[in-house]
Amino acid sequence: MKNNRDRSIAFLMLLPSLILLGIFVYFFIGRAIQSSMTDWGENPAQPPLSETVEISYVGLDNYVRLMTSFTESSFRVSLVNTFFFTIFFVAGCIMVGLFLAILLDQRVAGEGIFRTIFLFPMALSFVVTGTIWRWMLQPRGGVNILPTLIGLDPIDFAWVNSQETWFQFLWQDVPRILTFVGIGILLIMAVRYALNQRWRSMGFVAAAAIVGLLVFMAGAWDYIWPALDVPAAEPTIAPKGFNVALLGVIIAAVWQMSGYTMAMFIAGIRGVAEELREAARVDGASELGVYRYIILPQLNPIILSAMIILGHISLKIFDLVFAMAGPDNAKTIVPGILVYTKGFRANAFASASAVAVIMLFFVAIIIIPYLWTQLRSDDD
User: Fold this and answer.
1) CA 308 to CA 365: how far, in whole Å?
2) Cβ atoms < 10 Å from Cβ of 173
3) How many helices (H) and strands (E) does the chain have?
4) What residues contact 19, with CB distance under 8 A and at least 6 apart?
5) pLDDT band at 282, cuts 50/70/90?
6) At residue 238, what are phi and psi to the nearest 5 degrees?
7) CA atoms within 13 A on the CB side of 256
8) d(CA 66, CA 197)
9) How many domains does the chain divide into?
10) Are 338 and 252 spatial neighbours (Cβ–Cβ below 8 Å)?
11) Is residue 2 one of the residues assigned to a domain?
12) CA distance 248 to 275
């Protein structure tokens, strides 16, 4: 009786939050999905802000157009930019944060001061960070003129305005690239399982790699991956690859968030029992060996959590790119910028909603498996 009463009270206490969550999160997600399947703002004969506008259902046409239309090449560039930004941003934050955490773990004098200095950038908004680094990375000022202080020539590098593209590839080659990267990852996992004598897991992973290869060889991607409407123009008009203009944005993002990963890693390192370190030293392990074989393996859950959180931030990045490069820089375009320009400039609400839904899909790919594994571990 008391248990049911407590549950009812708890439910009533949570009900206002659940209602607000349902309205302002899930209802508007549903509205965005619904709008992405219409021609709202895409039909020139129907002004999108008119009181008498007629909105028609078009199904997945907006998504197909984003993936195939010559006029939507900026969207495909934004996906590639997001991929490279995520890779370098996450890797940079983890490496710099781990390095700073290891330095602080040496019990240096003034550790509290250094920890505060390293954490300070995280207290800034991305807009402030972008403004600061935009000043520092000016082509004819900031970092580029530092060598002149010691009598050298200034650096000639356009950080966020560079037109160079590295690692170029064709959009139609993406399925092949993804297939072989996925197979490579699965094979590495299979080798690790084999070294740990986890034969059953190794068999499943190896079988998945073989299935993926067979699916690719059978040409299944031809039925999944839509072909471009003007494939010959894609390499010259909007080449795909790592746009060098992203370097400045990546540096600024790593500068701001590496302190966050440092805090996570220093907490994990300090959580390792000192007895384990002393036992390793007694067995003849060097300090490098202590970190390699004792501390770092116990940081794997923290590294995974940091990757999930940073990946989530990178997929939604908007304000930092807007502040540093502006909304019209084709080389630094990201999906968040496209939602802004399509939705608030061109009033192309259907296309903007489709881009937002695609962003939500990629975020869900990262967040849902992580939450599922966390909830399973809590239940266990």
Assistant:
1) 10
2) 10
3) 18, 2
4) none
5) confident
6) -140, 75
7) 22
8) 46
9) 1
10) no
11) yes
12) 43
Length of the chain (residues): 380
Strand partners, 169: 240
Tokens 């139609």 sit on residue: 172
Tokens 């996992």 locate to 189
In a domain, 298, yes or no: no
**Are 130 and 320 a contacting pair, CB within 8 Å?**
yes
- 362 in a structural domain: yes
Residue 42 in tokens: 């895409």
Tokens of 313: 């931030």
SS (H, E, C) 217-242: HCCCHHHHCCCCCCCCCHHHHCCEEE
**Looking at the domain assignment, is residue 145 inside a domain?**
no
- Taking CA atoms, 147 is separated from 150, 159, 243, in Å, by 6, 16, 25
Q: What is the CA radius of gyration of the chain?
A: 25
Residues 6+ apart with CB under 8 A from 245: 158, 159, 160, 161, 162, 163, 164, 325, 329, 331, 332
Tokens for 355?
């881009």
CA distance 372 to 195: 28
Residue type, 21: L
Query: Residue 270: what pLDDT?
Result: 87
Asked if residues 340 and 78 have their Cβ atoms less than 8 Å apart, the reply is no
Range of the domain at 15: 1-68+348-380
Interval 159-202: pLDDT, tens: 888 888 898 888 888 888 888 888 888 888 888 888 887 888 88
Q: In this model, does residue 376 exceed pLDDT 90?
A: no
End-to-end CA distance of the chain: 28
Q: What angle is formed at CA 280 by the lines to CA 279 and CA 281, rounded to 5 degrees?
A: 90
